[in-house]
Amino acid sequence: MIDYTLKLDNKVLMTANVYWIREKIEDILYDKIGFYVPLQENDYDEDEGFQVYLHSESYNDLTDDQIDKLDKLGFTEDPDDTNIILNFLNVSVT
After folding, report:
1. How far apart are CA 68 and CA 11, in angstroms?
2. pLDDT tens column, 73-94
């Protein structure tokens, strides 16, 4: 399993596997928007590297207002939208 480095505002927060990085991103997201959003991580494709996106079950746990907020932010279940989440939080994963 590959370890990744998570940075916030260009400061290293942690180096860990994909699961711990995703959990930390969920915590940062919670702190920023005020509600918990289940995310899904992926690093199975070596060409794509680390990816994080809305978990397919996110919509079961969120209110309509919360879903609307995520829609307006551009958060989706598409792994290709990883940078939308990372940029919103001002974090990077390498």
Report:
1. 31
2. 999 999 999 999 999 999 999 9
